[in-house]
Amino acid sequence: MINFIEEIAKTISQAVNIDIDEIQGYIEVPPDDTIGDYAFPCFRLAKSLKKSPNIIANELKEKIDSSIENVAIEKVEVAGGYLNFSINKNLLIETTIQEIDEKKEEYGRSNIGKNKKIIVEYSSPNIAKPFHIGHLRNTLIGHSLYNMYKFLGYNTIGINHLGDYGTQFGKMIEGYKLWGKEYNIEENPIEELTKIYVRINELCKQDETILEACRSNFKKLEDGDTYCVEIWNRFKELSLKEFNRIYDILGVKFDSLNGEAFYSDKMDEIVSLLEKSGKLIESEGAKIVDLEEEKMGVCMIKKSNNSTTYATRDLAAILYRARTYDFDKCLYVVAYEQNLHFKQVFEVAKLLGLDEKYIKGLIHIPYGMVHLKSGRMSTREGNVIKVTDLIEEAITRVESIIEEKNSNMENKYENVKKIGIGAITFSNIATTLIKDQVFDWDTILNFNGETGPYIQYTYVRTNSILSCIDNIPNVKEIDINQLNNKEALRIIKLIYNFQETIIEATNKNEPSILARYLIDLAKAYSSFYNEYKVMSQKKEERDARVFLTYVTGLVLKIGMNLLGIEMPDRM
User: For 128, which of 9, 235, 357, 467 could close a Cys bridge (C-beta 3.0–4.6 Å)?
Assistant: First the structure.
């Protein structure tokens, strides 16, 4: 497929003798496509050419008009120091539909990530606690990034860094010692363990000796105490069984389930390396790395009772992953509340003697927290919304809507499930990651406007149209002039930019870019559908419009699948 930005950069380079790659980096897409398809800001050249942007723009236009021919460019105009380019629309249509016809379900795929390894750490729930909507956002964001990187040819490793270690398990062990026989853990493990956790936290607030006993339990767990390890293993086994049930429903998979406990025998080396660096110091019985000069406070490596911390385990994980995977990037999808933690860990990681490429490859992807209307969720307080309840409620609500509109739908349950889970997934991904979200049933399942079900409905509409024909028209017989109108061109441009959109989403580690793109594509098709009769009596019109319908549905499906959303057959 022709690269129009490259063609424009080539044309400008011929006029001013500047490197094509440099020029490509400056080319923009104007906010209004009526002034052009691409724009070059001439102020970028003002300093080197010692002229005003307006003069540069006019001189470039004159040179291009008089001596440079490029079939990819239809028109060049000057506007306020910008050089605006209108591309050859027929060439855009022809090359785009030919490529998507050739690649079909592989359209948008790339090998730009060849020979590069990307680790994506996501989900990472704490065992023995409910999988709630806060974990859900983390899981869905990470899963979509994992899918997109893989689609672009990266060797992608998805890691579920389970929260299966720490003082909280000392609390759980103490609670189980005190009240284990009162709860039916085998029948309803997560719910019963949560009750124990809430109860032991209340007791810790009232009795300092109980809190000390909890801390002692964790130290015993680290030291391999038989009783503590046995209970901890039981908690973990029961938790994973519940978590895997949720992952199966969401269609989420991982390449590794190595959680914090996996690194329990690897932390002595971290302490040793930090001691050799001369930066590990003792403070009030604890061992710390002082990061005050970097304005990051202190990073605790060992507590005064000699037990380890989150930071120690994260440092052990970095060392292990560098040696095991030789990663180019290691992405941590973790809420923004952990910003300081990751700044500290990445800074201390510089002291481990790792190659600079690994340090540069450490990237924290912060996202906003999920709150209830009543305020923040807390497992300790027992006010969380479990994902299992959320999914069941979503399916029930969707089923009620479908029952009113299409009670005889085939494969009703499977389609309802895809719509309900799709609505939840899209709502977690569609907004900019850093924004907090207030959980609201009415918002998450609003089927009007910019939602997952709206995109799914558009896809189902394209399928419904295609079900009326025997075969997809041959791309070689499409009259491209039938697609050279405002509504069709809007769709073609979006489809042309599909791969670039995925690349941009991974470059910025922002899945909402792809979600926004899919909304725009669905809206563009709705405008086209409302303006033109797809099943026209005229063969040349019908074939072109049907083919456009086909490729729109194809891209919507590929894009939604990358976000982790399945498409229903009916709605």
Answer: 235
Residues above pLDDT 90, as percent of the chain:
75
Instruction: Name the residue range of residue 543's domain.
Output: 387-562
Tens-place pLDDT, residues 162-181: 999 878 899 999 999 999 99
| CA neighbor of 137 nearest in space, from 152, 124, 147, 150 | 124
Identify the CA nearest to 466 among candidates 419, 525, 410, 514: 525
What pLDDT, in 10s, does the model give residues 372-405?
665 554 545 455 678 888 888 889 988 888 887 7
Contact 137, 370 (CB under 8 A): yes
CA–CA distance, 129 with 3 (Å, rounded to integer):
50
Distance CA 24, CA 263 (A): 45
Task: Compute the chain's Rg from CA coordinates.
Answer: 28
Question: How many domains are there within the chain?
Answer: 3
Q: Which residue has the tokens 């926004």?
A: 516
Q: How many CA atoms lie within 13 A of 504 on its CB side?
A: 11
320 and 266 in contact (C-beta within 8 Å)?
A: yes
The strand pairing partners of 41, in sequence order, are 82
Q: Domain holding 21: CATH number? A: 3.30.1360.70
190 and 256 part of one domain: yes
Pairing of β 298-302 and β 329-333: unpaired
Contact 552, 521 (CB under 8 A): yes
Q: Edge-to-edge strands of the sheet including 375-376?
A: 375-376, 370-372, 437-438
Decide which of 87, 107, 128 is a domain's last residue. 87
Name the strands in the sheet holding 117-121, side by side, starting at the edge strand that comes first in the sequence.
155-159, 117-121, 329-333, 362-365
Q: Which residues contact 369 (CB under 8 A, 6 or more apart)?
A: 134, 335, 336, 337, 376, 436, 437
8-state DSSP, 308: B
Place of tokens 């509340």: 337
Contacts with 8 (C-beta within 8 Å, 6 or more apart), sequence order: 27, 38, 40, 70, 72, 73, 85, 87
The CATH number of the domain holding residue 367 is 3.40.50.620
pTM: 0.92
Residue 285 domain flag: no
